[in-house]
Amino acid sequence: PQALYQISHTEKITIPDTISISSNSALFMVSIKAGTNLLHENTGKVCEKVKQGGLIQIVRETKNSLGKEGYKLSVSKEGIIIKATDNSGVLYAFQTLSQLISKSNDNLTIETCYIKDKPQYSFRGLEMDLCSHMYSIDELKKLIDVMSHFKMNRLILTLSNKFGWRIEIKKRPKLAEICSIRKNIGFKYNQTHHMNKNDGQPYGGVYTQADMYDLVHYAHKKNIQIIPKFYVSREVCRLKHAYPELTCKQTHNFICKTATESLDFWNDVFSEMTTIFKNPYIAIDDSRRKFFFKDLCERCKEASNKDPHSYNDVSWKFMRDLEKIANKNQREIIGGNKLYKYSKNPKSIAQLRRGIEEADKIWRKGNKIIYSPISYVLSMNESHDTLSVARSGILSLEDVYNFNPFGNNKNNGAILGISAILPTRNSPSFKYASIHLFPRLLAIAERGWAGYQKTNWETFNQRVQAAKSYLKNQDMIIGYPSQDIRLKTKKSSKGELLLTMHNEANTPIWYTTNGKEPTLQSNLHTKPIKIKDSLRITYITKDKRGIPTPIKTTKIVNHKAIHSKITYKYNYSMDRPNCSQTTLIDGIRNNYQFIELEDFDFIIDLGKNIKINEIKTSWASYPQEGVVIPTIVKYEVSKDGKRFRNIYQEHFELNSKKNRTKTVTCLPLKTTARYIHVLGRNRRRITYKTKHNLEYTWLKLDEVIVK
Fold first, then answer.
1. DSSP letters along 127-154, please?
2. Which of 601, 586, 582 has the alpha carbon at shortest distance from 699?
C-alpha cells in the first residue's frame, strides 16, 4: 500500500551476499525471524542475526506515535535502520524493504530513502466462505502469504451455513458426520460455465481442529488473526438429521431460538473455538431468518405472543444470549447491521454489509464498526473466468478503489476498518477464488492501510500492474480486467453536455446513434460526444478473444438540472457501484439510485432562478423483491432555498404482483425557481408475503428531469 510519508533519493546501495541483522531489543525476536525468512525468499541472499552493527539495525521506538503496526525505515550508505514499537511494525518494515529491493545488472540494489508509515485502520480484512466450497490448508496458507505481503491483518472464515459445516466439534461429532456433507457439489451456474462437473456424489468435509490450529499458528507469524464465523440463527446444513432437537418442528434446518438445547449447542461450539483461535473475537451472522410464521414451533409462537412481528424480539433475545455465551468464553462478538438491536456489550463490533444507514445507531451505543458493504463482495462471474460482477452490476478494480463506504461520516473514531467478502458459490476451486479476489483485493488493502483522504487512481493502478508479477509468482491467477462499458457525462466550459465511454480493459468501443446495431466497422469512440437535447446511443466492444460483446443501448437526456448541486436528507445506498452523488442528475437514463427503508428526500440547487416548465421522475417497482413505488411523490420549488411552494403531489397504491415503472410528471409548470425539493415517501414495511419474505422496502429512482 501507499506509504504515509516517503522521501526517495536517486542514490543506490548494493545488497551484499550476506545480510546481517541486529537489534537492541529481544522483543523483536519473532518478527526478525519472519523478516529474515522473507528477505531470503525474495533475494536468495544469506541472512544472519548478529549482536550489533548489522547492515539492518532494528531499534525499538520509545514514542508511541507509530502505533503497533507503524514503522520508520531509513536506507542510507551507512546502512538500513528500522524503528518500531511492536513486532507487527517490524514485520511490515521488512515487507516494504523486500519490495524496494530491485535487480540492477547482476546485483540487487535499493535506493536510499526515508519512510514513515502506519495504517489508517486497524482492521484490514477478508471474509472467506469455506462452506460453499472447501480449499486445502496449503492453499489458504498461500492466501495468507499474499495478504501479509499487502499488509492485511484479518481473515474471517465462514465455517457454517446451509451449504455445510466446516469445523470439527468434538462434543458434537454428528456435525462432521452429517452436517458437513451435502448431497452433491451443486451450484448449476458453475457447471453451465464449465467450471466443474456435478458427478452426483456427496460433497463436503471438515477441517480438523489440528488443521485449523496449524493454519492459525501460521497466520500468527504473518501478523494475521483468523476469526471464525458462524450462521447462528439461520439454516445449518442437514441439522434436522443430526440434532433434530435443535430445530423448530424438526422439519427444517433452522435453529430454534427458544430451545435451551440451542444455547447449549452454541456454548459447546464457542468453547472449543477458544482453544483453536487465539484472537479475541467470534463472528456471528445476525441477519434475521426469512420465515413464514406458521413454520415455527409452538414454543416460539408462544414466546412471540402469537404475533409474527414480535418474533423479532425473540430473535434479539437469542442473539443477546449468544453474546453472553461468547463473553463467558472470553470472546467478544462481531455481529452485523442489527447489533444495536440486541448487544449489551460496548466491546462487541458491528460488521456492516449494507452501507452506513444504521451506523449512527450502533456507535451511539459505544460499539465499533467494520465496513463490508456490497461493493466489497468480490464474487460472481460474467463469463466464466473473465469479468467480475457484483450483485448490483459489474464491479471493477476502479469501482472498489474509488468507492468510499464512509461517505461524509464524521465519527471516524468508531471505525475499525474495512473487509472484503468472498462468497465462494462460484469458486469451485481455489483457481476461481483467486480470479475473483485479484487484483481487486489490492484496492481493499490500499484503502485499509492508506485510508480515503488521498485518492489517485492512476498511480494506484500503476502499482497494481507492478504487483501482478508478485501475484503470479505466488501462483495466484489474476482476473481479466472488466470490459463492462461505463458512461459518464460532464458539462464543458461552454455549458455543453459531453458523453464519454470507457472500460477497465481499455478495449475499443464502437457505437451508433441512428438506431442501427453497431458493428466493428461503426463509429469508434475516440472523443467526447456532444448531447444537444437527447440521444439514444447503442454500443459494443470486443472480448479478449476478439468477439463482439452483447449490444447495449442507453438514452442520454440533456436538461436544466444536469450536474447541479444536490443535497440528500438521508444517505442513499452507497454500497452499489452505480450509485453516486450525481446519479439522479447526470442525464443517463436507467441508471438508478437506491435507498433502503428511508425516504428519497433531496433538494436540487440549479445555481440561479430559471424558468421551469416540467419536472419528471421515474420510480421502479418490483414488489416481490421489496422494491416499491412511494406512497406519495411531492415536488416543491423555491427561489431562496428557505420558503418552498408545493406544486405537485400524488398518492399511489401498491400493486403487490405487478412489476412496472411509474413516471410522475408535473406539466405544464410555467414557474421560476432555483431550488427543487423532491420527496418520495418509503412504505418501509411490506404487509403481504413476498418472494423472499422481506420485511423492509427499497425505493429505486431514475433520472430527475427538469425542462
1. EEE-SSS---HHHHHHHHHHHHHTT--E
2. 601
> H helices then E strands: how many in the chain?
16, 38
Q: What is the pLDDT of residues 493-540, one digit of tens each?
A: 888 999 999 988 889 999 999 999 999 999 999 999 999 999 999 999
User: What pLDDT does 123 receive?
Assistant: 97
Closest-CA residue to 682 (of 615, 627, 622): 627
State yes or no: pLDDT of 436 exceeds 80. Answer: yes
Average pLDDT score over residue span 126-149 = 97
pLDDT digits over 531-577, tens only? 999 999 999 999 877 889 889 999 999 999 999 999 999 888 776 66
Three-state secondary structure call for residue 434: helix
Under 8 Å between Cβ of 633 and 600: no
Give the C-alpha separation, 590 to 223, whole Å.
45
Which long-range contacts does 244-253 make (Cβ < 8 Å, 24+ apart)? 248/295, 248/296, 248/297, 248/300, 249/295, 249/296, 249/297, 251/295, 252/295, 253/162
Residue 318 near residue 335 (C-beta atoms within 8 A): no
Confidence band of 235 (pLDDT split at 50, 70, 90): confident
Query: Per this entry, what is the length of the chain?
Result: 707
DSSP string over 57-119: EEEE-SS-TTTTT-EEEEEETTEEEEEESSHHHHHHHHHHHHHH-EEETTEEEEEEEEEEE--
- CA 486 – CA 501 distance, rounded (Å): 6
Amino acid identity, position 422: L
How confident is the model over 8-24, as a mean pLDDT?
91
Residues 310-356 have pLDDT tens digits of 788 888 999 999 999 999 999 999 999 889 999 999 999 999 986 56
DSSP states of 195-214: S----S--EE--B-HHHHHH
Running DSSP on this structure, what letter comes out for residue 194?
T
Give the DSSP H or E segment for 645: strand 645-651
Cα dihedral 14, 20, 24, 26 sign? positive
Q: At 161, which helix (H) or strand (E)? A: strand 154-161
502 DSSP 8-state letter: E
Q: What is the DSSP letter of 235?
A: B
Bridge partner residues of 596 (DSSP): 698
